[in-house]
Amino acid sequence: MSVLSKFKTIAVAGVATLAVIAGAQASDTIKIGSVLSVTGPASFLGDPEEKTLKLYVDKINAEGGIGGKKIELIVYDAGVDANKARTFATRLVEEDEVVAVVGGSTTGTTMAMIPVFEEAEVPFISLGGAVVIVDPVKKFTFKTPHTDKMACEKIFEDMKAKGLTKIAMISGTGGFGKSMRGQCLGVKDNYGIEVVADETYGPKDSDMTPQLTNIKGAAGVQAVLNAGFGQGPAIVTRNFNQIGITVPLYQSHGVASKKYIELAGDAAEGVRLPASALLVADKLDDSDAQKKVVTAYKADYEKATGQSVSTFGGHAYDGLYLLVDAIKKAGSAEPEAIRDALEQTKGFMGTAGEVNMSATDHLGLDLTAFRMLEIKGGDWTLSK
Predict the structure, then answer these.
(1) Which residues belong to any copy of the Leucine-binding protein domain (predicted)?
(2) Domain 148-275 maps to which CATH number in 3.40.50.360, 3.40.50.2300, 3.40.1580.10, 3.30.70.270?
(3) What DSSP assignment string belongs to 101-133?
């Protein structure tokens, strides 16, 4: 029997031969893995994710761990290299023998790892954005961020409410941008939206003026939607301002960190986007059900790191605590039991919103979990 086959039948909690199910000899640790984009062009995702996981694993362990067992966190940095991500995923399964994984900063690295974890039957909670991660549903794969399809729907709701029906799109050609473009085109008719110009840019492009000039010259454009993440949207925002486009600019939740505002500078003023309540934690009403969670995470993260909170670290927080909650409810760190408990999650309040999963929904969020924000005075505000 191969190591991988053995993994499918043995609950691994730090030592491959020791189980944590009732009646078995228990080990002292529960091994949890993570593959993130800590460095490279998606470091604005992976860096706060890694910091968050380490911060809260230390906190959980200091408070006694999970049922008296400490968490052993194993983190690998794949950058945005899908091949590296798959290699590290295999290492987590075959060498480190983790019981679950929280990671996958990007859609591209996540999709490369899913086959590894599905074959090994290891629960995987992705931090990537695209809906293709969980649609169609895979047995052992879950995710915490709102999807690109949800972002399209939230943006189109806002546009429709403002009477904006003719729009231009400019999208990145990477995994997330390509996926979101497709999702937006797929749901636009539900909101009476007509796309009158459709441009794209590559991950290494440093000037989107030609594409935006085409958009500026298109007839009847009432708003522009940028589907993308990383430095691309900041460049789009600056070029958008430089060539004097005056219609509203919408971005995706892929720019929901202060880094985007810093890179875009004054050109970010007035940009609208859907994001989690975390970015406006201090502006929420005291009666808001999310306020306690997001304000506590914001305070912990900013005190520990000296950096502004981002929704991306929040995705890691949600993933870790969904996993911890599942282990506690299952009374076991056996992968199959964890998977079953994750799928039965109800009423879990995270930084992204209230999570209610099922056999047909491995995300568990709806559009109410998104807030429409507008950048004013270099900061996030709740849109009116």
Answers:
(1) 29-364
(2) 3.40.50.2300
(3) EEE--SHHHHHHHHHHHHHHT--EEE----GGG
